[in-house]
Amino acid sequence: MNGNLTGPVPKEAGKREEFYRLGRKPYSVRMGDKWYPYLRWGGPFGIGIASTAAWFDKYNADGTVPTSERLTNAASAVGRAIFDQSFFTGLANLLDAIREGKTYSAKFAADVLSGFVPFSGMQRNIVQATDVYRDARSVYAKVAAGIPILSKTLPPQRDIFGRTTKQSIVGTETKDSVDQELARLGVQPGPLTDKIRLAKIEFDLSPTGTDFYHKMTGELLYKTLAATMDSVAYKSANDFAKAKQVDHIVSEVRTAGKEVMLAKIRANPEFKAAPFYKLNVPFARKTEAAAPGRP
User: What would you measure as the largest C-alpha separation in the chain, in angstroms?
Assistant: First the structure.
């Protein structure tokens, strides 16, 4: 109840992004400013602790009697905790691949292929201790992400502020004032994707383009929010007004980021994979004025 236990990672994109950005880890217990994985180190007691955390995640904070739907959700979360054990990971990934199809099939195939890499377990441990999280989409990239040296050839994953996160089984609670203020207000901007959508234009970004887009837009968003939160006008406003202002800034900055990326894509073809929708008129085309008397 004091927020010292975590269960599974939230499913909603915004909540999941905030979960990791605040330094939390799934199935972990907070000691000081660190999050330690009880499911990994708790042995047979880990499942019992996970059950408690999963129940609280699914239970109403006001203490009302849970409905059958909430009971089912709680049982599902406990089941997820069991499947997240290392000896069940392969089976869990197979079930995800069957249920979700393309979304998880690459991950399952990569897990199978990584079993043929010599000392794959030891190499993954080295990567986790020395590298940041990487943007691994294809089967090759997912395998490479677990191999030292090769993992560094992949673009990094970035949070909503364009920051990379170092891999570790232990999480560290963030001390950043902007992160803490967003969490206090309950504002949870969703993560940026690998697509650019603006009006009738949609581009699939390459890993290189995605990295540039996330870094540029994220850093601008952080600077803008930090400056706003430090202003006298912001500090004197109530929480409702603060939340509305933050939402407006997120929307404006991300729209500006998309417009910049559209210009960058023209000069850097490697930033995009392929347009989904083509306009009949080029981006910037000067036309001569129509002759007098002509329509």
Answer: 87
Instruction: Name 35's bridge partners.
Output: 30, 171
- Overall residue count recorded for the chain in this entry: 295
Rg (CA), the chain: 23
Which pTM was predicted? 0.68
Residues with Cβ within 8 Å of 226's Cβ and at least 6 positions away in sequence, in order, are: 177, 178
Backbone phi, psi, residue 51, to 5°: -60, -40
Closest CA to 97 of 127, 142, 55, 135: 142
Spell out the residues 6+ positions from residue 102 whose beta carbon is closer than 8 angstroms to its own: none
Q: Percent of the chain scored above 70 by pLDDT?
A: 63
Measured distance CA(23)–CA(173) in Å, rounded: 5
What pLDDT, in 10s, does the model give residues 183-228? 999 999 999 988 888 777 778 888 889 999 999 999 999 999 999 9
Query: What backbone torsions phi and psi does residue 59 show, to the nearest 5 degrees?
Result: -95, 145
Query: DSSP letters along 10-52, please?
Result: PSSHHHHHHHHHTT--TTEEEETTEEEEHHHHSTTHHHHHHHH
